[in-house]
Amino acid sequence: LVLIPGIELSTSWESMEIHVVGLHIDADSAALAAVIQRQEAAREARGVELGRRLAKQRIENAYEGALALANGASLTRAHFARYLVEIGVSKNVHDVFLHYLARGKPGYVEHIWATLEDALGWIKGAGGLAVVAHPGRYRLSHAEMDILFDKFRDLGGDAVRASEAPVRLSGA
After folding, report:
1. Which one, 19, 45, 58, 151, has least CB within 10 Å?
2. What strands lie across the sheet with 6-13, from one edge to the other?
3. SS3 track for the chain
4. How many CA atoms lie within 13 A of 73 on its CB side?
């Protein structure tokens, strides 16, 4: 088994959240460490606000509950969803997102992620390979997916994780 240093960054592209994986990064990159610190602080602030909004819906201690479930990992909406299921607010995580955490719902908190350009710059700056993660999850038409892949390639992207193994972008 070979361990490869890597990172997954959430980015904003055309009003969508796109995840980019950086493989073979320099784990000691000071620039990347600063980015991670900023991202974590932004996630923390988003989590506090999400908890405040859920408290307005009479769902108390959601922030603390989600934080406990995160157990030191990056705090995400999924932790809030799991907590709400755990305390009986909803029967499953899907329902929590549907009624509380999706755009336009009472617990939703907008988050502006890094741009695709910034994420690739950070990954490349840390000596890594940039890979679009799980493209099948994005609600994009074939034409939009082609535009994303072309943009990603033009920015220096290396691969798309289209199956169990990354597939190289043509021209990259």
Report:
1. 58
2. 114-115, 6-13, 16-23, 129-132, 159-160, 167-168
3. CCCCCEEEEEEEECCEEEEEEEECCCCCCHHHHHHHHHHHHHHHHHHHHHHHHHHHCCCCCHHHHHHHHHCCCCCCHHHHHHHHHHCCCCCCHHHHHHHHHCCCCCCCCCCCCEEHHHHHHHHHHCCCEEEECCHHHCCCCHHHHHHHHHHHHHCCCCEECCCCCCEECCCC
4. 8
Q: How far apart are CA 76 and CA 148, in angstroms?
A: 25
b (16+ CB within 10 A) / e for 30-54: eebeebeeebeeebeebbeebbebb
> pTM of the prediction?
0.77
Local confidence band at 168 (pLDDT 50, 70, 90 cut-offs) = low
Distances (CA, A) of 117 to 68, 89, 121: 33, 39, 6
* Structure-token match 């479930």, residue found: 69
Q: What is the mean pLDDT of residues 84-109?
A: 96
